[in-house]
Amino acid sequence: MPVESGSSAAARQAKQKRKSHSLSIRRTNSTEQDRAGMQREMLEGQDSKLPASLRNNLLDLFGQIEREFENLYIENVELRREIDTLNERLAAEGQTIDGGDLSKGPLKAKASHSTSQLSQKLKTTYKASTSKIVSSFKTTTSRAVCQLVKEYVGHRDGIWDVCLTRTQPVVLGTASADHSAMLWSIETGKCLLKYIGHAGSVNSIKFHPTEQIALTASGDQTAHIWRFMVQLPTPQPAADTGAPCEDDVDFSDKDEAEADGDVSSECPTIRIPSTTLKSHQGVVIAADWLVGGKQVVTASWDRAANLYDVETSELVHSLTGHDQELTHCCTHPTQRLVVTSSRDTTFRLWDFRDPSIHSVNVFQGHTDTVTSAVFTVGDNVVSGSDDRTVKVWDLKNMRSPIATIRTDSAVNRISVSVNQRIIALPHDNRQVRLFDIAGVRLARLPRSNRQGHRRMVCCTAWSEDNPTCNLFTCGFDRQAIGWNINIPALLQEK
Known about the structure:
The protein is of the alpha+beta class.
């Protein structure tokens, strides 16, 4: 009669244990719905000041948490049983192979390797389960504090830049690769004015601090200054855009086709600028007003930034020193300071506070193209890069950043809110994330098949005083979006 080996007996016992355990799991699942119903009835019987919809959402979330941890516990028990079975089998094999000691030689290595694999599997399962729970909380928080309010559709190509006027009435400006710039009503989403004076892509738009004057930079190697007058239409009731959604859903071509309609055909059009600035030998990628509005600075792919006098259109200074093309320029809101960023992985601070001389400081710290660098109200500069990082710098100590934000995608033109100093990061991967000035992550704007950008997000802009929308984004999907960010709730969540 054949004798059953120790390893075969151990395998048969493990199989019986797993079969018994699977039956217990089925019994557990069969009563799960009954238990959840009982818990819900008990909780609903208690007094609560929470709205019914919010309370039901919380009940569902807690139910998901319980199920996730229950599944994790079951998998943990099962894996530990498999480890015990493996140890028993290895011990039996150790007795039959020349009386080998399990603590020595190749058997020890085999046992250690197998146990390590199972331990790694257990850790992976735990991380996956807990990340699901954390993701559920983050998604719910983002929907509660970040809501899409209005979409601005009408451009025929990607939108590179977005900006808000600093005078009344406050309107939204967009600069597009379709060779045009548009002004929009924030409340209605209607196009109020269209500028078509450029012969190339319009890469940036900025507004005069005290007058209704716009400054645009273009791929036609020029910057234009043009005046505008707009009248706001009567606001219409806002559509409900707060429907539930799921994150990270891919978009179809049909969604993009919806943006092909020319809704700007009825807009008044401006074709001729008041002033043309044309000293560059390459694409003008950005432009901005210096404090006071009497001078402007432009940044170009010819590796130079130019400072112009607005009244005479004369070139005042040519700021050279970057080794590669410039990508952005920005001016300080209250001082005569300019910061330029470049593909040479640096950004430079130019100081014009002394009329007789201007100084320059070079900031090094990124490993790829610096896509933008902007001032905060205090003595900080925030820089974003294609190296997937954002760094916060102190102007008084330029040796190293005081905070570094690491992300999973290249960062484009960032903006910092004036009052709360919240940084809005637009990404190549269609996401927009919010951080505080210390580098703490606050939220991610919701994105789904119903709302959000379909392609790369190019730029963000804050509006401090608008009660409807206080953050605007634009992207290469031909649209700009207005968001309502509940900043008190956002900071409270932090």
